[in-house]
Predict the structure.
Amino acid sequence: MYCGVDIGGTHTQIGAVDASGNVLDHEKLNTTSFTQARDLVITIAYTILRMAKVSGRKIEGIGVGCPNVNPKTGMLRHAANLKFKEEISIKDELAQYFPGIPVVVDNDANAAAVGERIYGKARNTDDFLCVTLGTGVGGGVFCNGKLVYGLNGMAGEIGHMIVEPNGRPCGCGRKGCLERYASAGGILDNYLEICTQNNTTPQASTYRQVAEAAKAGDPLALQAFDKAARVLGQALANIACVTAPTHIFVFGGVAQVGEILLAPLRKYFAENLLFCYKKTAEEHPAVHAEEHPAVCIELSELMETFKDAAILGAAALARL
Ligand SMILES: [Zn+2]
């Protein structure tokens, strides 16, 4: 079995996964109840050892998805959504409990991309992008069949591409980052801004309420998603110029609204995409070529099909 660990700001999920992607065993810890990252790692280690002992299965590899972790060193530092102050190598700390077993640590967006590659819709493509939309915005980039790490392992931080000069302040210290418009909090801000522009009292004060209002057809809530889609669509069209992907998979809590976001996202993406990434008129004789980008934007299969997508993505890290 492979073990997948997803360390999130609120919960840490630990699961045992078989080769077909079935989650055999599953446990949830409260991340906020740990004040030291080292204590969390020790509890994760003992949970995995217990799972292996009870089931009698051999651990073939352990993958850990964690925000802001450096995949090259396994070091966790400056994670905005985690409260840990100390800087430790999650990889080295965990590996000492599992001699001879590969332990791979990567950020949650890369874990989602690798999960899509191993278990999802990206099985047959070498060039794709996985965009995670949740508390933040992240990216996992596959190019020429390889996950792109770059100089220090931090490639793919697409949430901090500046999309609005002098725009909303971001947690990274700069202004106008994509994350401030297309994350859950960003979409809430879009909504509040649109309400002010329309001299309307906001009917929602959380992202979840905006998403519910959009599902019920509220025009201002739909505009908030439309703004996120416009900013994200432009950014993804720019990224296509760098890596020429065949697919872009959308993952994470915000992606759960489905077509409310995906339909305008495809529209804005197509509007901004450079001609050479579009299908030619010969390939699409019946319709105008501009309307059909050769890049497909789809919901992640990991999210659509599997219940424990984050565990699966993490476990996949150990199989790449
Ligand atoms: Zn930023």
Notes: The mean pLDDT is 91.
